[in-house]
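Recap slide: Glyoxalase-like domain-containing protein, sequence and predicted structure.
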Amino acid sequence: MATPARLDHSIVITRRPEDAWALFTRLGFTLSPVSRHRVTTTPDGPPVLGCTANRCAYLDGGFVELIGIIDEAAPDPWRVLPLIAGGDGGLRGVSFGLGDSDRVLDRLRDTGLAGSGVLSLERPVGSGVLRARSVHVDRARTPEGIVHSAEHLTPELVRAVPHANGARALTGVLLFADGSEVDSIRDRYATLLDRESRKVDHGRVFDLDGGRLELVVDLDAALPGETPPSSPGFVAQEVGVADVDAARALVEGAGVPTRDVPGGFLVSARETFGAAVLFRSAG
């Protein structure tokens, strides 16, 4: 039986959280209130108040997580700060729903990908406390950023909300890879996701139970006009919206430039603190 695999959320990390949160609000996303992270550093260890807080755009399928550095002197148990060393931040990771965390850990240990035990995360959400478990892929194997599983223990606190831009789902995360690296990266994600990719004009695509991961070799074909990051590097997150034209009118009406891409429009990483957003029809 194939391992369940869905796109859970994209991970944007920034040293300018107030600016980033304001920008994503202008893009038409309804963001959750600011919530400080408490995370464990070892399996069954006590939660530690970390250096980050987030706001999220919760969708019918997956969500966009906007993580802000709010106290660089506070503990950094999940090693977030090295991911934005020398800059303000950007799209730095992806999380996949892979089922039960204990089974995920066993499988990743067997394949040499595990970089942690089963870790716990909690943060306040309204009058409740969101709780989740996660297994991180060995950071030495993911130079593109942070990659981990997500098992939601309080799914009732991860609920979709209406968005002015008509956003319905996180439909894709795009990872740029130099042609010389794409085979090894493809094989790594094939192991993690327990499925094979298919070839497309600009690279390869992993079709998941919800959403997809794209390995982009030809950046001009996938995202015309974008500047390639260091390879490998996450280059964009794709959001499916109810009406592409209406979403574009809202974004441009907020004074944010857009560009045409096949099937939709792009808000460049240059406008989004390094976290490009690709808008296409949710279908």
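The mean pLDDT is 94.
The helical segments are 17-26, 101-111, 182-193, 219-222, 244-253.
(End of recap.)
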